[in-house]
Design a protein that fits this description.
single chain, about 80 residues, alpha+beta, YaeB-like fold, five-stranded mixed β-sheet
Length: about 80
């Protein structure tokens, strides 16, 4: 089981979402912590991974050695990739 850690940016973005979406994201993250390789897809040309949750995307770092999922950013699919 991987530990889940949020960046300050990700916590802020999660707090701005409505409760239904936030709970959905939390549930999916909890599921993915058991087997990250099944849920996360690597972003092309980058070290980060993405997790799809409905219309939202999570940008994360999967740290295998530390058994940690670092959530870096959460946003709608139409603009989550523009910032990076």
């Amino acid at each position: 089981m991987f530990a889940i850690v949020f960046s300050e940016e990700a916590l802020h973005q999660l707090g701005k979402l409505d409760n239904v979406e936030a709970k959905r994201i939390a549930k999916k993250l909890k599921e993915s912590a058991e087997d990250p390789s099944h849920y996360f897809a690597r972003l092309s040309g980058r070290e980060e991974y993405k997790l799809r949750v409905g219309d939202y995307r999570l940008i994360v770092n999967v740290l295998q050695a530390e058994q940690t999922i670092m959530v870096r950013s959460i946003g709608h699919r139409k603009n989550i990739y523009e910032k990076r």
